[in-house]
Structures are given as C-alpha cells and as structure tokens.
C-alpha cells in the first residue's frame, strides 16, 4: 500500500455521518491506547528481566547477600509497636488500661 492509497482509505473512513466519524475516532483511540500499553509493558518487562536475576539462577554474591540480609531481618532487636508494649502478651486494650490504672 502506498501512502496515497492509505490517505484515500482514511479519507473515505472519515467521510460520512457524524456517528460514523465518531466511531472511527473512538476506535482509533482505543487501538492506539492498547498499542501504547502493550509497547510500554513489553519494555518494562524487558528492563525488569535485565535488572533482576532469574529465579533458577543464583550466584555466590547474591546468595551471600541473602544470608546477610536474612540475619538482620530475624535479629534479636525488639522494636516497640504502635499498638502496645513490645514483648508483652497482653492485648493493646489491656496494656492501655494498665497504664491508666498506674496514674491513679
């Protein structure tokens, strides 16, 4: 198809009633949006596959990093939660009621 034929074909599509022209425009928008989303998705997946290691493969440096970070995640550091006292078996409501009784 030459450029002249494509132009003639588009001009026949855009000729006619307002409803036909609107449907052609909406269809073109939907197809263009779908094409754009497809291209962007493929690019993002390709970039992500290049950046992150694949599941079955593991190198020595990544396995060492995993063991190091696993040690820090399960460490003995106890942090205070927002809902109650850290290390206490009481519910937050009980812990708060005990605090209010101490003030009296």
The helix/strand order is HHHH
Low-confidence runs:
none
Overall outline: elongated
Proportion of residues in helical segments: 55-70%
Query: Count of helical segments?
Result: 4
- Rg value: 31 Å
Please give the alpha-carbon distance between the first and last residues.
90 Å
Main beta sheet strand tally, sense and closure:
none
Strand content: under 5%
- How many E strands? 0
Computed structural class: mainly alpha
Q: Kindly report the average pLDDT value.
A: 74
Task: Walk me through the structure.
This protein has 104 residues and is mainly alpha-helical. It has helices at 3-13, 18-51, 60-73, 92-102. The longest helix has 34 residues, at 18-51. It is elongated, with a radius of gyration of 31 Å. It starts with a helix and ends with a helix. The model has no long low-confidence stretch (mean pLDDT 74).
Features:
104 residues, mainly alpha
Draw up the topology in text.
Layout: H1 3-13, H2 18-51, H3 60-73, H4 92-102
Give a short summary of the structure.
Helix content is 67%, strand content 0%. It is mostly helical and 104 residues long.
């Amino acid at each position: 198809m030459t450029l002249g034929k494509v132009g003639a074909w588009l001009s026949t599509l855009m000729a006619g009633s307002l409803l036909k022209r609107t449907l052609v425009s909406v269809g073109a928008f939907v197809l263009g949006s779908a094409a754009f989303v497809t291209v962007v998705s493929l690019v993002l997946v390709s970039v992500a596959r290049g950046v992150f290691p694949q599941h079955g493969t593991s190198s020595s440096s990544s396995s060492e990093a995993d063991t190091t970070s696993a040690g820090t995640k399960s460490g003995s550091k106890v942090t205070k939660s927002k809902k109650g006292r850290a290390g206490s078996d009481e519910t937050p409501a009980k812990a708060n009621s005990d605090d209010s009784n101490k003030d009296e």
